[in-house]
Amino acid sequence: MKIGLIGAGLMGGGLARLFVKAGWSVSVFDPDRAALDRLDIELPGLTLSQLLHEVAGDVDLIIESAPEKPALKQSIFADLAKTARPDTILATNSSVIPVGVVTESLSDTDAKRAIGLHFWNPPDVVPLVEVIRGPRSGDAALKTALEWMRAIGKDAVPVEKDAVPGNRMQAALWREAIALVEEGICTPEDVDIIVKRSFGLRLSAVGPLENLDLISLDLGADILRVVLPTLSNATEPPRELTDRIARGERGGKSGKGFYRGWTEEKLAALRSRLAAHVTSLLG
Ligand SMILES: NC(=O)c1ccc[n+]([C@@H]2O[C@H](COP(=O)([O-])OP(=O)(O)OC[C@H]3O[C@@H](n4cnc5c(N)ncnc54)[C@H](O)[C@@H]3O)[C@@H](O)[C@H]2O)c1
Fold first, then answer.
1. 211 Cβ closer than 6 Å to some ligand 1 atom
2. Atom of ligand 1 nearest to the CA of 92
3. What gap in Å lies between CA 277 and CA 218, rounded to an integer?
4. Which pTM value belongs to this model?
5. Measured between alpha carbons, how far is residue 91 from residues 116, 140, 177, 212 in Å?
6. Which of 53, 74, 155, 265 has the fewest CB atoms within 10 Å, measured from its CB?
7. pLDDT band, residue 45 (cuts 50/70/90)
8. Does domain 166-246 have CATH number 1.10.1040.10?
9. Is 2-163 a domain of CATH 3.40.630.30?
């Protein structure tokens, strides 16, 4: 099997690792030579190119992991539709931009072979892939991609409408976590402790709906009746977040975000702690 990866950043690099391990032939496109060179050091022998046709021209599946900008992804998909073989499945790994938006300018024939394949970081470790149906995606492309993902050991979940369910749930949690800080209820550190030392411990074993069955739907309804009116219903990123961004506090890479004192070493340690934890949970 042959795969073309578009974008050699965090996700593209992780996908390269995943598909190399799965025994697929991997080629990677990125306009940035430095990004390709970094991948070359880690995984020598891949086809790495700044020319799209060298990567996309003769593969079974293409996964795009370029920056999360709708216009950029649209232009990449327009180029892929011209460059790839007619039977190549075209997938976007976009976090939240709908497949319908990314594939807007494609003909119906090309849109039929275009789907969402949403991986989770690090994609060579985290098992889930959301296989997303865009408004014009064809059944055959979705079924084939689902089978391929399962064949390489992924927990592939069909998503029947153009949405990314995992990110919807994650965004709901972010909104409420930020609201707790904004309302002066908890510090950022304490919000994280509350999650990590309570329901966060449970979530990888018992899903939220399984847990509702466990505690009983009646109790769930009683809880929601009281708590839902107190939750944030913000429809824009909250000030607690945008004010920080305006002050240059953009998270780890700027040294400060909700936490202070980030360094490259601390970030690297956090990444390894995360990867080691996920790996140990997966056995
Ligand atoms: N980081 C995550 O946890 C995560 C998880 C799932 C999905 N995603 C999605 O994957 C995509 C990439 O995210 P990332 O974290 O790897 O970003 P990243 O910034 O690490 O990598 C993006 C790469 O795309 C390259 N690029 C720039 N212009 C390009 C173009 N025209 N064509 C091809 N490549 C181009 C950049 O040089 C860079 O190497 C985004 O859509 C993101 O939302 C990210």
1. no
2. 41
3. 34
4. 0.95
5. 5, 13, 32, 34
6. 265
7. confident
8. yes
9. no
pLDDT in tens, 123-154: 999 999 999 999 999 999 999 999 999 999 99
Q: Is 79 exposed, middle or buried (0-12, 13-18, 19+ CB in 10 A)?
A: middle
Q: Please indicate whether residue 166, judged by its CB atom, sits closer than 6 Å to ligand 1.
A: no
89-92, strands of its sheet edge to edge: 47-49, 25-29, 2-6, 61-64, 89-92, 114-119, 128-132, 155-159
- In this predicted structure, the answer to whether residue 283 has a pLDDT above a threshold of 90 is no
Q: Does the Cβ of 66 fall within 6 Å of ligand 1?
A: yes
Helix, strand or coil, per DSSP, at residue 89 = strand
Distance in Å, CA 73 to ligand 1 centroid: 10
Domain spans in the chain, listed from the N-terminal domain onward: 2-163, 166-246, 252-283
